[in-house]
Amino acid sequence: MRDAEGASGAKLGEAWKALPEEETKKYQDLAEKAREEYKIAIAQYEEDNPGAVETTKKSAPKSKATKGDTKEAASKAEASKKSEKDPNAPKKPQTSFVVFCA
Fold it and tell me: pTM of the full predicted structure?
């Protein structure tokens, strides 16, 4: 099943590359419109839910710990755990390629 998905993805990629600039512009415009709507939605969400954005942002990258600093590593690991995403938060906009594929 995975090979069929990969093959269809490759065909979509080739079709995207083969599109004339006028055609891709149509999808880029749709994606730009979605980005603008997202910016408005996220601004409204941040206004309605102060402090919620900090919990949905990605945490700092994890660092590898050595044997000597296990307590530090444990506290860093605890701090860097992913927080739950708010199901009411606006979804990120689709790219022009994803709009094309849909």
Answer: 0.60
